Amino acid sequence: MAENRHISDFRAENSQNLIPFQCVTNTPKVWGFDTEEREPMEFGYARVSTEDQRLDLQIDALTKAGIHPDNIFQEKISGVRAKRPQWDLCRRMLRKGDTLVVWRLDRMGRSMIELATIAKEFEADGIELRSLTENIDTTTAGGRLVFNVFAAVAQFERDIISERTKAGLAAARKANKTKRGGRKPVVTPAKLRGAKAMLADGKLTVLEVADTIGVSKSALYRALKEEREAAEAKQHDHLQRIGRLPKRGED
Question: For the segment 129-182, what is each residue's pLDDT rounded down to a tens digit?
């Protein structure tokens, strides 16, 4: 476990290496270093979602857990916000061997995926995590096991979201295809005449002609077929009237 010290304990010891962070409201009296050569420390992070809510409960719990008040980052901002200045500052301050303590896991992130991502980053950077409410401590084998379970659940959640996204995109493409085929403007007589002229010229494909007159390829094919069938039926009826073909029902 990281030694229970706070910033002021070693500020004088390392004054030549201190670089002050920009002052932000509710920021602990934290000084960064241009070197990572310092002893491991414990930090706390407390967050509520609105200005009307109070941080007292979380801060009291963190201090009772041994976190010096100067080392607690405090924030009043919704967890769904993409930018959380105090969290970002806390994250930059953490070094290998440090421990971050939170009152509850959802203070760090609002989704299992986000928490698993944070845990993976902490593991890669050698940062430990303690959550007081869930009694999780990644410095222990049990704590690491719990977070591995979280990571597995988060991956499962990612897979489910991915499958739903793919299914939604497929359904959208199908609906859009139906919309293009059934709801595009009909092939008016004028458009059909223009299409036939372009096709007779032989320089454009059916698809290119369809795009030119603003209809789908299938709609143009259907219009050409219907016109051809109508012309054939008209010719058939004409031949019947003049006696060139037997009438229906006659042998």
Answer: 999 988 888 888 887 787 777 767 766 666 776 676 666 666 666 655 555 444
Beta bridge partners of 46: 74
Looking at 49, 131, 162, 218, which residue is catalytic? 49
State if pTM tops 0.85: no
Active site residue 49: yes
In this structure, the answer to whether residues 113 and 201 fall within a common structural domain is no
CB atoms within 10 A of CB 100: 25
Largest CA-CA distance found in the chain, in angstroms, rounded: 117
| Among candidate residues 5, 10, 40, the one with its CA nearest the CA of residue 126 | 40
How many structural domains comprise the chain?
Answer: 2
Q: Do residue 179 and residue 83 come from a single domain? A: no
Measure CA 120 to chain center. 18
